[in-house]
Amino acid sequence: MDGEWTDVGSAEVLAERELQRVVAEAVPIALSCVGGTFGAVHSACNHVGGPLGQGTLAGDYIVCPWHQWKFHRQTGIGEPGYEADAVPSFPVKVENGRVLVNIKAATKRTRKPHQPHPLARPVSRAEGPVRVVGLSTTAMQKDAPRYSGSHHLLESALAAAKAQGCETQLIKLSQLQFRACEGFYSKSARACTWPCSITQMDDKDELTEVYEALVHWADVVLIATPIRWGQASSLYFKMAERLNCVQNQVTTHDRVLIQNKVASFIIVGGQDNVQGVAGQMLGFFAELGFHFPQFPYIAHSRGWSAEDMENNVAAVRDSKELHEGAGHLAIRAVELARRLLATDPAVAVERGGRKAHRLIDNLPPA
Ligand code: FES
Hints:
- The protein is an alpha/beta fold.
- It is 28% helix and 20% strand.
- It has a five-stranded parallel beta sheet, sandwiched between helices.
- The radius of gyration is 26 Å and the shape is elongated.
- Bound molecules: FE2/S2 (inorganic) cluster (FES).
């Protein structure tokens, strides 16, 4: 440090990369160099703290590697339309072959007020009867739907819940257009946001309907899946990956979005592996924070050699026992929900009580 100026390195070496992270007086800096001219701005993005120094350059704008917000590499001001969003910028000069940054003369960080996504509102159960959402995860042609055993049993379960005085709602994943999880979590736990980063950036993504139902509306979630190659359906997993943002709030913010809610499952296998599929679904929904009634799933499979699919279909369609079983499953789930709703909401447990170790990162992650 020389007076107000801090030496961050050799100009010749630093000019080799157009954007990099350096540190001056413990302040992380996104240092850019274009045509021999340096720029220095704070490396922590205004959005949720993404590391601008690890981003890319688009002209004179630094593109945040997490969700692509842009800031001018020299002034720190947001891209056109977002000028009210600015990260601190620092005077920078080259003397005697060294790059010097003046940390003390930083401009102010300013934030344009961003309208929060509707899903971001506090979770608060509205008065009313027990609410049950059915999630049908089987894939099929949109315009020419086939018979689905898991879907049919789900309808029976919802009918039983309705007969109990519940409000019900059915969501068919095959009718929704939604993107696969694009791995924001793989960049950093904190790059995975609630609401989901995709949901915030893409108003055409229709998984909002599922988030709204699971987090804000339902007391009971009934999930129906066929077995495909020994696993739940591909749409189930596509949805589950996108629900990582709900579970990740526990990791990053000690925030349990799912409170006093019940999940149960309907699994229909053409071949087998019912218990393996149930185990995965139970494990995942437990991680989200759901409770389970006694005997939390019903299932059906005619076994490994039952390749005569039309008979598999008929067996489910015509089975009084299976449809009654689906109804009983719904009633067990609703009864547990009623008991949970009659008690005080669960006390928030730090880290959800899930893991012994805290998230290891260097905040702000810049
Ligand atoms: S765009 Fe920078 S953290 Fe999201």
